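Try it yourself: sequence plus iron/sulfur cluster, in.
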Amino acid sequence: MRVLKVVEGTSVDGPKLRTSIYLAGCSHACPGCHNPQSWDPAGGEEMSEDELMRVIAYNEAPVTFSGGDPLFQAGAVASLAARIKRELGYNIWCYTGYTWEHIVQQPQLMELMKSIDVLVDGPFVMAERDLDILFRGSRNQRLINVPETMKHGQVVLFEPQVKI
Ligand code: SF4
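Structure, out:
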């Protein structure tokens, strides 16, 4: 898959120190996007699932997929996420510019959601920008507890103070 960068031991993309994997490609074109150079799907470098697994296992830390938008490489990210869960059992967060309501209508995106613990959904909206909310850029974005949301068939929010 095309990877912009891997940041080891970051605390800005979810609770605890995490391994964040920034994936290339995004077409949401949110006005005010902090990282438009991430939009090119051919950007970054090619990294195999095995290479990423080695980095993730070495760090012994929960994982976050960001970008760009990881859902633009949903098939490859789903395979990697399932392997992280199966072999390492780590907590996984995923950022996307899509809303949950869009994702549930796309089977290939739902395949990835099976391995995600928390989804930060929705585009960045400049008018909703807020520097005081945890792990998000704008107030329209939600921290979604994916397993509970799938279980109940309606959005259940993740409460950041809950120990994971
Ligand atoms: S989804 Fe994220 S990376 Fe894509 S345009 Fe919006 S803010 Fe930028």
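One thing you can check immediately is this: The longest strand covers residues 2-10.
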